[in-house]
């Protein structure tokens, strides 16, 4: 490989100074901000040179050459995600069959960034530039040089190649999001660097605490490498700050707290369209349900108000969006129109939308939350942090001075809002995380070097569940073969156990289909103004046993229709999601073949299917409260109040005993993907977890 700037050669035209923690801080000599006018019309090469990160190209390559770890702090839109991997390739880091890896926390960001980089390099996606996400591999082993992937996929690659020997440089992008996979990955990469000191890491982020990350990767002086190791990089991290290309953003707050952020967001969009000059609007809401509701409200208002409101082009943005809809988001706004993008926090840092001048910030996002005492993990709508609020506001200053409308008071922002978010590691169920570390041979989980330590209660609860599933033995080691097989499957451990148990019940064919459905977002498409027809379509497939068996009916109907998109449209089903189900199922069939497990069908014996589901999900069992209100259930282990979600086919049916797949929390805890069971099946499936207690006889 043609090394870039060997020690002793000319340094880049900037001053490098040691910071207080032994890292290196780069102070650029040229601070003139590059103009962004005519951005869409320049050639791709000119566009690349206009990005703020371009003037740091030499400095980045110099630091990567000299230091084992380089921390790059730069605003979203600076170009770091798309440009740094290309700079590394141009400098020769992918020569000799080696790979440049770039991770993202979200699948949609992986696909979008990889697609953009392939376009800039001038190659077909999947050749020199490719990506890998769960259940989808768009790479060519002999040809791919730059590979984009999710954090979770890179962790899975370590199971086959523990030292990631194929990679010369790994860039961890959006590290500030502190997802559970990002934190595990950072801890593992730190271990790998001890064995492979030549491996270069780039930690890239929009708001990351550079000092704390530098401290995490710093090696104590007594352990540092001898000075004579000329061919090895300096183990101390370097820190580089890349300025953004932002314009000033005027921030507006509400005078009084709003009671309904959804209605407030919709009315703010209409006021902006009425009173402000042209420019696209980006609205931050919490999730797909909120976004669909806002789309309906906005479209209803437009129909009512008419006039120039027809100039609004309203588009949703969330991670489960079909590819065609994603492309509309990034397409230029038609002349004379104003685009309104209603998004989750995916547009906060992962994706850059050109043309946005106005941001409406609800002040909330959907966050994973886990209580190890009640053993309830759910998605809750929670207030964002100041760091997130600043990121959201920054989206408005990309093309010209913009405005951010915050749907909360200035007093709340200054005095009550948290400075930073809580890392996902400290608010998540750790079952999947522990299995991954065990599969990588890390037995001392408590002694693992975490960037943020998880709670001991969550750790103990996860170990208990894994032991009860038969995945860990009494010494907390993976069992043979089940533990290792579960670790190898790219699924939630409960679903993996369900698949492996299905062989005993003779229904592995059906359970693979159910597992594939549980691995995609909702297969239903709810349309505005046709609730009656939508409910009727759902009833055509509904099974008395519950949602899992309903999935089997949908799968059968889809196959009988010849996988017709017309049939999907007529039945309010998402054609893309069902095609994905078939792809995932085919991959799971290959995994089963590799394990030597035959596929068996139970020929409509739904009791066998339900028993197989319980084998994986027995910990999520509930019973209907006899004297409870409005279909209230209680979890069997911890007596938490839960309710069947309105999207379930068992909503209002309320069987006495049920098992659920996941919980979502708003005003209540709602169970999604629910199936009716018999209580005696629980003690059969998990006698160590449940004992059957006969009620006390009534006194005479």
TrEMBL record:
Top EC class for this record: hydrolase
Classification of source organism: Eukaryota, Viridiplantae, Streptophyta, Embryophyta, Tracheophyta
Name used for this protein in its record: RNA helicase
Superkingdom of origin: Eukaryota
Pfam families: AAA_22, HA2_C, Helicase_C, OB_NTP_bind, WHD_HA2
UniProt entry keywords in alphabetical sequence: ATP-binding, Helicase, Hydrolase, Nucleotide-binding
Species in which this protein is naturally found: Brachypodium distachyon (Purple false brome)
Ranges where the Helicase C-terminal domain occurs: 265-441
UniProt keyword annotation of ATP-binding present: yes
